[in-house]
Task: inverse folding
């Protein structure tokens, strides 16, 4: 199943620092993560090839407010066959383009939300 994960060097230190943030700032970051995950899910649902609609409906997201992480995943087992292709089926990427589009917007999204929380 297509699932993307970004590992950050020094993430344990980052997690400690994030845990020390004031609650209102953490809430703002949780909101940013939720908005980003919703955006990835929405764009992936728009791009996924549809036959029955089951694959589209199986794209879900989850936000862990304690760790300040978000996961967007496909619950149908055949999602990775569609995303990456097989020997007899050409790849039809839908998660990667959605992730890349949000990745380009994410820094601005965080900056805007943090600025609002601090003002």
Result:
């Amino acid at each position: 199943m297509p699932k993307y994960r970004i590992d950050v060097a020094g993430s344990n230190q980052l997690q400690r620092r994030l845990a020390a943030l004031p609650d209102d700032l953490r809430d703002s970051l949780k909101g940013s993560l939720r908005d980003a995950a919703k955006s990835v899910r929405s764009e992936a649902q728009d791009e996924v090839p549809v036959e029955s609609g089951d694959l589209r409906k199986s794209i879900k997201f989850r936000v862990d407010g304690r760790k300040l992480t978000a996961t967007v995943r496909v619950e149908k087992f055949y999602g990775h066959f569609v995303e990456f292709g097989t020997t007899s089926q050409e790849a039809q990427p839908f998660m990667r383009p959605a992730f890349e589009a949000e990745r380009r917007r994410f820094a601005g999204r965080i900056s805007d939300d943090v600025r609002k929380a601090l003002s």
In short: Residues 44 and 97 are 8 Å apart (CA to CA). Residues 22-118 form one domain. The chain has one domain: 22-118.
